[in-house]
Write a structure and sequence with these properties.
The complex is a heterodimer of chains A (122) and B (103). By secondary structure, chain A is an all-beta fold. Chain A contains no helices and 11 strands. Helices cover 0% and strands 53% of the residues of chain A. Chain B has 103 residues and is an all-beta fold. Classes of the chains: A mainly beta (122), B mainly beta (103). At the A-B interface, strand 9 and strand 10 of A face strand 4, strand 5, strand 8 and strand 9 of B.
Chain lengths: 122, 103
């Protein structure tokens, strides 16, 4: 059974860099047909896709965040990571890692981590 | 593409039928539309993909339909565990959600 687990600091100071890692177990991050993604959800608000990466390093970012976001993958550790630079209070959110299932018709987030709350505050 | 869900909040009783709407700002392929359920403190869960296919383990009281710009999630007979937030999704876009609450 595939499991995803986010890890990283729960508190980040304004202007600093938010760094999170997602560890995938019960399956290989190198499986074809899937991307690995980060999604965030500010408290009491909706879902926002941040970006996606596959095992070969092909990356897509959500345009509004693109200048501050870096997603990377480490297939040897079955992990992928997120960095968001120059954070502000607006980056406070629950951050989810998830698997994106690619089909001929569409892409679906079919497995999710439990999420980790990251608060930006001094 | 902007996805707009309605209503924002739906108040119903267990046993009733729920109809949730998702409207796209332009026509989309029905095979690209998905629905998710999210309960408080939990991650979203994939319910419906390709507009009408149920994900693994999803009860058959959940059904999806629609095409073009208008899509619907229907819960035929509400169970207590169905009261939650529901989101539609198309590629990198999510709707703002519909809260299904107990009346």
């Amino acid at each position: 059974q595939l499991q995803l687990q986010e890890s990283g600091p729960g508190l980040v100071k304004p202007s600093e860099t938010l760094s999170l890692t997602c560890t995938v177990s019960g399956g290989s991050i190198s499986s074809s047909g899937y991307y690995w993604v980060w999604v965030r959800q500010p408290p009491g608000k909706g879902l926002e896709w941040i970006g996606s990466i596959n095992y070969s390093g092909k990356i897509y970012y959500n345009s509004p965040l693109k200048s501050r976001v870096t997603i990377s993958v480490d297939t040897s550790k079955n992990q992928f990571s997120l960095k968001v630079t120059s954070v502000t209070a607006a980056d406070t959110a629950v951050y989810y890692c998830a698997r994106l299932w690619q089909t001929a018709g569409g892409n679906y987030f079919d497995n999710w981590g439990q999420g980790t709350l990251v608060t930006v505050s001094s | 593409i902007v996805l707009t869900q309605s209503p924002g909040t739906l108040s119903l009783s267990p046993g009733e039928r729920a109809t949730l709407s998702c409207r796209a700002s332009q026509s989309v392929s029905s095979s690209s539309l998905a629905w998710y359920q999210q309960k408080p403190g939990q991650a979203p869960r994939l319910l419906i993909y390709g507009a009408s296919s149920r994900a693994t383990g999803i009860p058959d009281r959940f059904s999806g339909s629609g095409s073009g710009t208008d899509f619907t999630l229907t819960i035929s007979r509400l169970e207590p565990e169905d009261f939650a937030m529901y989101y539609c999704q198309q590629y990198g876009s999510f709707g703002q959600g519909t809260k299904l609450e107990i009346k």
